[in-house]
């Protein structure tokens, strides 16, 4: 059985790690380079770095900061924000990324998924999906959750898989930052519908939420930010409890 992965997420704005609730009211959570080193030491399985305003500000990801983080860690490193073409992905790969995450650019130009998968391999392409319930349906949102689209979440994820996405990073905006638990209903529906790994994101507030998401949805990985950044949950402690609950993890 494949080990379940625990993934801290660094949401970065103006060179600092930040965290909000439902994608707004951002507050400072520390230096991304220091946090990255700390998570690598704690036993995180991977690290995700999202330049959260790159798309809205119509600029590229901060390559120098990415290089500084990459030098501090020895775990797989996924980077997202402001990636619109092959050249952007190539620059991040050279800066130390193992995978890239695209969101708004993929929705606006789905063929970009095909191009990236062909150029770098399926395992390199993570499709991040920010979803929120509107009129009873899960709808994909763009620009850091600011802009609703016409796409239903499950339809879009299945299209992304068919185009060459290697992994889905699914964030429930309704749960994000609330610390009330993951959106297990949606996560199970998506995980059952695709054949690629799904990373759960949005809502982690306690160790039990990680136990629940793996038991109830069988996703491949769980991602969180503030509970790790502010020391509310330590990764070694979390993994110990997951093992006690018969969830396979790397320790």
From TrEMBL:
GO molecular function: imidazoleglycerol-phosphate synthase activity; lyase activity
One of the Pfam families matching this protein, by short name: His_biosynth
Pathway as given in its UniProt record: Amino-acid biosynthesis; L-histidine biosynthesis; L-histidine from 5-phospho-alpha-D-ribose 1-diphosphate: step 5/9
Keywords noted in UniProt: Amino-acid biosynthesis, Cytoplasm, Histidine biosynthesis, Lyase
EC numbers on record: 4.3.2.10
GO cellular component entries: cytoplasm
Catalyzed reactions: 5-[(5-phospho-1-deoxy-D-ribulos-1-ylimino)methylamino]-1-(5-phospho-beta-D-ribosyl)imidazole-4-carboxamide + L-glutamine = D-erythro-1-(imidazol-4-yl)glycerol 3-phosphate + 5-amino-1-(5-phospho-beta-D-ribosyl)imidazole-4-carboxamide + L-glutamate + H(+)
The keyword Cytoplasm is assigned to this record: yes
Subcellular location field: Cytoplasm
GO biological process, one term: L-histidine biosynthetic process
Enzyme class (EC, first level): lyase
Cytoplasm as UniProt keyword: yes
Superkingdom of this protein's organism: Bacteria
CDD domains: HisF
Catalytic machinery residues: 11, 130
Annotated HAMAP family: HisF
PANTHER family: IMIDAZOLE GLYCEROL PHOSPHATE SYNTHASE HISHF, IMIDAZOLE GLYCEROL PHOSPHATE SYNTHASE SUBUNIT HISF/H IGP SYNTHASE SUBUNIT HISF/H
Its job: IGPS catalyzes the conversion of PRFAR and glutamine to IGP, AICAR and glutamate. The HisF subunit catalyzes the cyclization activity that produces IGP and AICAR from PRFAR using the ammonia provided by the HisH subunit.
Quaternary structure and interacting proteins, as annotated: Heterodimer of HisH and HisF.
NCBIfam families assigned: hisF
Family: Belongs to the HisA/HisF family.
Protein name: Imidazole glycerol phosphate synthase subunit HisF
């Amino acid at each position: 059985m494949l080990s379940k992965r625990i993934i801290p997420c660094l949401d970065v704005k103006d060179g600092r790690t930040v965290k909000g609730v439902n994608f707004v009211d951002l507050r400072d959570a520390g230096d991304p380079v220091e946090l990255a080193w700390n998570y690598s030491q704690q036993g995180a399985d991977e690290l995700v770095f999202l330049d959260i305003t790159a798309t809205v500000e119509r600029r590229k990801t901060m390559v120098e900061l990415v290089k500084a983080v990459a030098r501090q860690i020895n775990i797989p490193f996924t980077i997202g924000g402001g990636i619109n073409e092959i050249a952007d992905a190539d620059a991040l790969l050279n800066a130390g990324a193992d995978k890239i995450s695209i969101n708004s650019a993929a929705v606006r130009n789905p063929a970009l998924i095909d191009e990236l998968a062909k150029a770098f391999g399926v395992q390199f392409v993570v499709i991040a999906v920010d979803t929120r319930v509107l009129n009873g349906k899960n709808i994909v949102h763009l620009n850091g959750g600011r802009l609703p689209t016409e796409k239903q979440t499950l339809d879009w994820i299945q299209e992304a898989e068919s185009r060459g996405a290697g992994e889905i990073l699914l964030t429930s905006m309704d749960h994000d930052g609330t610390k009330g638990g993951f959106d297990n209903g949606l996560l199970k529906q998506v995980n059952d519908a695709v054949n690629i790994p799904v990373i759960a994101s949005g809502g982690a507030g306690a160790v039990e939420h990680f136990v629940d998401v793996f038991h109830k949805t069988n996703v491949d990985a769980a991602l969180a930010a503030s509970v790790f950044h502010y020391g509310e949950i330590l990764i070694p402690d979390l993994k110990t409890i997951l093992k006690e609950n018969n969830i396979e993890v790397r320790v």
